[in-house]
User: Fold these one by one.
Assistant:
Number 1:
Amino acid sequence: MISEAPPFWWRKADWRAWMLAPLSFVYGRVAGHRMAHARRASVSIPVICVGNFTVGGAGKTPTALTIARAAKAKGLKPGFLSRGYGGSLDVTTVVDPHHHRAVAVGDEPLLLAQEALTVISRRRVDGAHRLVAEGADLIIMDDGFQSARLAIDYALLVIDATRGLGNGHIVPAGPVRAPIGQQLRSATALLKVGGGQAADRIVRMAARAAKPYFTASLKVRGDDRLTGIRVLAFAGIADPAKFFRTVESRGAEITVAKTFGDHEHLSDDEIGDILTTAERQDLLIVTTSKDFVRLSGHHGKAQELAQQCRVIEVDMVFDDHLAPGLIIDRAIVACRERRLREMKTKS
């Protein structure tokens, strides 16, 4: 299934949002009730959830990767927990980046597995237990803040400073996943990504609720400039415009820009069109890490496109370089407190 957020979600609320408002009210009541009252299973190691307020990308995966690197620097063995969205496997699976393909496990888990132990599971509780069995001593959940049935020790909500909350309405009238008040109550801290102002309102709300917030930005890995180079840029992610801005920031001239659905696996015809257009106009093909891993491991046209792509890799860089370590430390303390409460309850 492909996640495709309607463009009107990211503009000022119009008649479509107000027409869908009754459905959003019902959806929000159900989502908020589940967040507040769901029974959550417990595991013996700390759980950090990297989530967001809205449907679509805000930078969760690069944030999770940055936290995992900080954990490894502390001598810990982090494990990623993902639902495996976009993949076909419906059993709890340890992802092998040298064996699995994105069509089976999803694109994000493949990226995560290149950094640390990664488990996909439709039932996150089962996945968490598998990570413990595999020797992880810290779980980093990529998404699942609103729906997980797992006890979370630190919930970091990522919000894009350019997109913010979109039109501010709850699904299906807008991109917000659950009532903002309930989400803030369940959050530990916020991470504002980028230099825009669209997230300022929610940051102020978080401050009034005594929730700390961090700031960060996506930085292109390495110093691979594309100054003056004409490119064909394609992206099948939640916010392709962000990727195109990144490409232009490297000095490239985007002659052709192609967008596809989030997590979409390209057909041979779509791949052929990209290859033919690039060859005809003498363009360098550039794409994202997620799009690239969806091409990896295939043959034919997909393999040909993968060989011709220049991948623009980005990292989430916290303004305070100590912040990822602080998040981990606080999660460890919260886990100890949670385990003590559980022991007292049992006794």
Number 2:
Amino acid sequence: MNVRRRHISAVALTAVAALGFGTLTACSSDSAAAGDTGSFDVVASFYPMAFLAERIGGEHVHVTSLTQPGQEPHDLEISARQTAQLEEADAALYLKGLQPSVDEAIGQSPIATKIDAAELTTLEEHGTEAGHDEEHGDEHGTEADHADEHGDEHAHEDEHGHDHEGGDPHIWLDPVRYAEVAEGVGKAFQKADPDHAADYRKNTAALVKDLKALDEKFRTGLANRTTDVFVTTHAAFGYLAERYGLAEEAISGLDPDTEPSGARVKELQKIAKEDGVTTVFYETLVSDKTAKTLAGDTGLRTDVLDPVEGITDHSRGEDYFQVMEANLTALRTALGAR
């Protein structure tokens, strides 16, 4: 897959190639790879963590991502060179429960500042294959109703073998939870690099303001809709669904490589008919074959709902905010929002 390359200096490209270490994400510094920059060096596990580090750190932080653009983050295996380079960084920013090899490498490293995004907000369990009657009952409630009911609706990982330790890790797809993580990362940067604490504080506030604005766009954009139900290939959107009173029906589990059972496919066909579903969503980093098969069997259309796990040439935007706004547009169309 061809991926989008940021414009960085030849010196930086040479340094990264020599180290064989992932991809340098966009940041204000074009200095050499992590551990040899003279700035606060942060290793981020994958794009949503790197985005936070870059926005909060600004010109004071050099960010390197362990996961390359276009690489499915769930499948990442840390190399020996990456492990060695990780130990040279000033901080590691990751999301425990999403990438086991990253969890292990960071857990065993002597790095001084380890920031686990999962500890900066509340993780919950979101189900994948809950029964239609159990999830939806006879009618779809208000956003408050959904918020009250989500604990019972979505606690199905253990039953279906999709458990992630500590709950669903896809917190960045809820702008409110992502803002909570941003605030925690900002405080961690201030503590680890006090000389630039004022700038980290200012940058964090600006990012949180933007995330609150994004939350408001989703609230108003999805307020008037004809259905609450959307179908995805990958159960990544549980937090987003919970936040805005929607109901995600996933073909696969939290693990995007999980194959659905025949019974699950039949159930989804029934749900699509009963709930006025128009669209089966797929994502850019995972095969669209299952989504297109289901859509073809049920007379539905397909579209992209991006879990924003990485930015590539196929992404509908250059960064987190642009891709999330593209997701909102796709959801509004699918849900009949006016």
Number 3:
Amino acid sequence: MANVIDITGLPPERILFSPSPLAELGAALHALSEPGHHPGLHGWVTATNAGLKTDLADRLCEADFLWRSSRSDILLPARPGATLAEELDEMDKIDDERFVAAAFEINCSPAYTRPTPSPLVDADERARVREMAAARGPRQAAFTDRMLTDPDGLRVWLRRLLEECEQAFFGDIWRRVSIQLAADARHKTELLRHKGLAETLSATSRALSLEDAQDGSGSTRILVDKLARGRTTAFANAADPGVTFLPTSFGWPHLLFGHAPGWRPVLQYPVASPELPAPAALELVQQRLEALGHPMRMQLCRTLSRGPHTTGELATAFGITSPEVSRHIATLKKAGLIQTRRRGRYVLHQLDLQVVARLGSDFLEGVLR
């Protein structure tokens, strides 16, 4: 399943490899809020969370929907700066309607690839965003209300929060990893110049490839092998055409693909891939593989891996009935792949990431035993 970036006619110099402190901070915050995604970072996550002041930790929880399930586009700059302050200055230049829409695109937008009215000016969209935020709990509901009623004040609050993260832990991290990331970006830039884009993409990630269309159109496309579907063009932002690649030392196993309408395409790729632990239980592995054999359950797992969702939300997102969703959820839950909890009148389902992370290594150990 491929996501597509049409780069037909794009000059090679419009393809940018560069480290970004804001994007790396977003990756670090994601790892802190979802350690199950990053088994190789458990030691760092535990030590960092333990060292956070209570007030800062509480405020990070308020805003974590910006980076928890995925990463808001506002945290993936298409034109990286040398410092976090420079990138935050550029973020301040985004107009309120575009900023708010980007803030809600991850878990309150009905379709990432389709423009929707801004909740700042559209009453129906504002009501829908508030309803979806309420399902995530009181923290996100309160944060959402603040963003809708006082976007300027909320943006000042968010910038101060990111600056405090730099002071508390990220400044030391960036001094340590920025050298490696800059070296990787330079290497990819040189590879692009001397070997071409196809080889550069292959060296960047096994999930990236270059394809020339076979329909005689002469078009050239970057293919991004991810379960979700997406399509954009390097000319989506007419004022700044191109594609930006951001290396990250915290991002594995994620390959982020930002391609909202009107935004320059951005890919954040990991520069290291730590090994997963390998416990084993063959009979249970067989049951879990059978549960994952249905294509709709695979799609549901992708959504549930990024955060908790209600049955109604899943039914709306995939265009099936709530009873169908419930049957798929029951199968996944019986196999021990799903966690369920109640929050008020909402029942939320989420993929058990640690169980799924062990599945491949469990299988391999079982057949080789």
Number 4:
Amino acid sequence: MAVSVRDVAAAASVSVGTVSNVLNQPAKVAPATVERVLRAITDLGFVRNDAARQLRAGRSRSIGLIVLDVRNPFFTDIARGAEDRAAEDGMTILLGNSDENAAREASYLDLFQEQRVNGVLVTPVDEDVPRLERLRAGGTPVVLVDRTTDDQSFCSVAVNDVEGGELAAGHLTAIGRRRLVFVGGPPSIRQVADRLEGARRAVAETPGATLEVIEMGALTVLEGRRAGEEIAARPAAERPDAIFAANDLLAVGLLQALVMIDDLRVPQDIALIGYDDIDFASAAVVPLSSVRQPATLIGYTAVDLLLRELGDGVPRDERTVLFRPELVVRDSTRP
């Protein structure tokens, strides 16, 4: 049976209120009494029920974070940044993985609300803002991560993915490539759509350049490998001379498939660039060029915005933090 506060009080010959003061406001208790209560806690192996205490207070010391795919190192780095900032204020991060599934995302939103978290950070699967508005109306602040809203109704932290798409495709055309392929999906993910839009802008500005789109069901290594096998199976004359993958996991899968073909070389025959600049990109068999996002800083900033929202609120002109992407050139696109 679990040891209770009453058991500690009896062992230390004090009241339950005194034990509570020792746990929460020790300055109010005489030092000798504090020592006696702490000795009883140690001897009995008492562990305080922090969940019950937080429930009585009406709010926990936790922040919920929902990401699209916890297997993607980009989101792991976001979680690390969020954890670092939360720890500075004595809070913890509860991590949920939607797996790009709207129903699963909704389940986590309900769970976090039931847990009375201080707020929720979320990379939404789709544009279902009304659900998030209901969560906020219920008293739980929401900050969008790696996503923005046009009307700034929510605080948000993201990278300019349209600019990132332009950087990637513009780099490919700048090294002389003209038959480009964009591999990404599903298109319902806002980041994918924005990166494709940026790529289209860059291609439109380059005479003779074309852009083919290969839509995939997920942003994973396996899907990238599948796309790479399809491209490699084409006759040499029908293959693209450059590929822009919507994220680095796709790019790694593409590279795995392409390097297995004897008559195909990266980058000589097909240049390849990814997005996110995860650690795997620089460690690939052919180091991958990528568009870098400051993932850890995104997570850190998202928690900072949430804590400001919990405090005095965030002015409207500061509700959106938009970082600029950075082009990182490695062997997979070197001329």
